Amino acid sequence: MAVNVTDENNNPLLKEFEFPPFDSIDASHVRPGMLGPEVLSADAFSAFEDAGLHDDKAVRETGHRFRETILTLGGGKDPLEVFVHWREPSPEPLIRHNGLLVAA
């Protein structure tokens, strides 16, 4: 069901909400704020890779640290501050996971 433009303009929930322009979302121009979550996601997964994905004890310990910082502190603090408390973020895992850097 399509939203009528007049309905959209009269919706009190949308009056102060500004939708991002889709012309800025393409392969040649990515807004920096959109890349941050990908960097943190890849870096978080790399923490488990660094621990050794086949080492159950190490993965469990990494998961416990993740739970005690990221999931426990979650919405109560700045997300980047919480992540840094768990692990210093790095763009290297995202670059590696996208095949642009060979793992050492």
What count of domains describes the coordinates?
1
Structural class assignment: mainly alpha
Q: Largest sheet at a glance?
A: none
Mean pLDDT: 79
How large is the count of helical segments?
5
What are the segments in which pLDDT stays under 50 over at least 5 consecutive residues?
A: none
Order of helices and strands: HHHHH
Tell me what portion of residues adopts beta-strand conformation: under 5%
Net shape: extended
Strand segment count: 0
Instruction: Give Rg in angstroms.
Output: 19 Å
**Which range best describes the helical content: under 10%, 10-25%, 25-40%, 40-55%, 55-70% or over 70%?**
55-70%
Alpha-carbon distance between the two ends:
51 Å
Describe this structure in words.
The chain is 56% helix and 0% strand. With 104 residues, the chain is mainly alpha-helical. The chain is extended and about 55 Å long. The mean pLDDT is 79. α2 packs antiparallel against α3 (56-73) and α3 packs antiparallel against α4.
Structure keywords:
single chain; 104 residues; mainly alpha; 5 helices; 56% helix; metal ion binding; Pept_M3A_M3B_dom; metal-binding; metalloendopeptidase activity
Question: Any chance you could write out the topology, listing elements then pairs?
Answer:
Blueprint: H1 5-10, H2 32-51, H3 56-73, H4 79-86, H5 92-97
Helix pairs in contact: 2-3, 3-4
